Sequence to fold (46 residues):
Amino acid sequence: MKNLAPDNFTQTIRSINQLDDRVHIIHAGFLRICYTSISVAIRKHQ
Fold:
């Protein structure tokens, strides 16, 4: 594997930072779905 060039690395970090807000929103929604499904499953078992 070749090492990434420093410029390439900084560009990747910038693009990740730009996507960060969207990723956090998607991740929060995903965690909410998981939490609700788990809580529903726990209620059914009780």
